[in-house]
């Protein structure tokens, strides 16, 4: 009996009719139609409707159905084919050697099976040798070089016929137009992946958003959409990258003996080859590679969805050959999916340490990248509106690395009529104080402050005791919750009044651990000024700013007496931060807290104030225009102002510099007319560094 592959996954959205409801062939037909529809959206339109993990589930279900009932296999089945049809707008290119897919493995057992089949196929006595590399999440491309010159580039298409995207590929700077080789082969088809870095993807989507255009679902789709443009000028603006990993036709040159040697040869000719690659032995070797890459994955600048193992020797590859749509000599070992689909059951709010109200989607439990997720952040109210996420929607949830799970988008075709919009509550759900949102801010806040709002109190206390602040071990969330809820403590100063009896009365608190908490509190009294300032939890004052403040003022009293002007003299402090500090210091309750902490014995070393740092941009006026590649305009303005400069809205003779990003308009023209120096982002950063 074929098993329904969905039962091994976490609680599911009841999206797909259960397999036992209809008859097998009906189910298979439904799966084929559904998979074909999604493939079209994914491969042809670069606009997928469901996450890959959902697609893969349907795909695996069809595979197991076809295995149990081989008569169900038809030539139009997605299990028999590669990719999608080439778009008719492009000239079609027939591949000299077909471009196939890869079989997938999801666990160690799959890998053991693959390794066994390889050894059997090659009749090996010992271990097989594998070349291991990354599975880039982009789109496959075939580059034809004739006598070392790039003459044609084609997408994979349906594997036999692809789209001619030569003009677009020529705009990709990573791809050499000429190979660095004294004696290049007469014909060489280089195969590899075109992809987009995560940072370039984020910037592209920001630009799309500002221009009111459709955002891309992920870097893969952005890369595919950017490459398959009819206008190469658009592709040229999209920062595409490339890694070579395979070969098609070769004429007039000697084929290397191994896959590893092929990649080295490529690298020597100036083709980008990813350095995360190795040659290993046996199943143990590939699994070790898998683990090491899994650990690195969150830090890689591009998305990968797994690693690929290829039998290293090319003669062995040839011997193993192909099955319908994939080689027998290679396998893709996939990571757990980072995206999954589920239903938003409700949208609630969370109150942070500074009172910030974060909308949070309450989800039907769903398994994403190794854990069950029930809550996902929606960041802020504007984000909920922009993404148009509603209660009852089916959504795509993403959890990458250790990052908090977030709702990426809703699935339009599954939206029902009875979905409800999120309404920002008027009152804080924790303390009942009004929620306010200053017009120019993206974040709504509980106006209760820590005095009225237990949520803010808890957040503030947790920040105070955290490792980089006062570093008080043993005071975790559960303990802080109890202390606040039972009104044992109100402020951080009360922590130092805690006695053994009060602590021992709390749930799950043995006398031994209570003593440890007291010891940790005592130890924390001896601290440093930067830690103390950071621990106060002033909005916009992170660790780095706290350090600058401590260095600049040298003593707590000088810091407490600082005016807004004095604060603006501190390196890297601009008006937003200065205002936030003065607001904090103006509140008598905060002053009292500081005094109580000092009275409790919290102490540190002080020193003379640092000589006032020069403000290199003093007297200079800047105008910002266009989209900068890495900074938002607000960030750029804050940095300019922190260096003493002014930011103005329009260009005049008094303007010192114009900082222009992409799509800069009339301000740039005006600057050029007036002969005002124009900087790009890199130029601005250099000026900041040099001065
Ligand atoms: N969300 C959807 O609706 C939808 C629809 C169709 C397909 N998909 C997704 O597409 C994938 C299946 O598609 P597929 O057959 O195009 O490709 P695949 O991703 O399963 O594997 C083959 C491809 O991997 C790429 N690749 C990356 N690194 C490689 C390396 N080092 N060596 C060799 N190849 C490498 C190549 O582009 C190659 O064509 C699945 O993950 C599926 O979930 C999703
Ligand atoms: Zn509140």
From TrEMBL:
Xref: PROSITE patterns: BRCT, DNA_LIGASE_N1, DNA_LIGASE_N2
Reactions mediated catalytically: NAD(+) + (deoxyribonucleotide)n-3'-hydroxyl + 5'-phospho-(deoxyribonucleotide)m = (deoxyribonucleotide)n+m + AMP + beta-nicotinamide D-nucleotide
Binding site for NAD(+): 52-56, 101-102, 133, 156, 193, 310, 334
GO biological process, one term: DNA repair
Entry keyword Disulfide bond: no
Active site, renumbered: 135 (n6-amp-lysine intermediate)
EC category name: ligase
Superkingdom of the organism of origin: Bacteria
Annotated GO CC locations: cytosol
Named cofactor requirement(s): Mg(2+); Mn(2+)
Positions of Zn(2+) binding: 428, 431, 453
Alphabetical keyword list: DNA damage, DNA repair, DNA replication, Ligase, Magnesium, Manganese, Metal-binding, NAD, Zinc
BRCT domain residues: 612-691
CDD domains per record: BRCT_DNA_ligase_like (cd17748), LIGANc (cd00114)
E.C. code: 6.5.1.2
Molecular function (Gene Ontology), one example: DNA ligase (NAD+) activity
Family listed: Belongs to the NAD-dependent DNA ligase family. LigA subfamily.
HAMAP family in the record: DNA_ligase_A
PANTHER family: CHROMOSOME TRANSMISSION FIDELITY FACTOR 18, DNA LIGASE
Role, per record: DNA ligase that catalyzes the formation of phosphodiester linkages between 5'-phosphoryl and 3'-hydroxyl groups in double-stranded DNA using NAD as a coenzyme and as the energy source for the reaction. It is essential for DNA replication and repair of damaged DNA.
Name of protein: DNA ligase
Taxon lineage: Bacteria, Pseudomonadati, Pseudomonadota, Betaproteobacteria, Burkholderiales
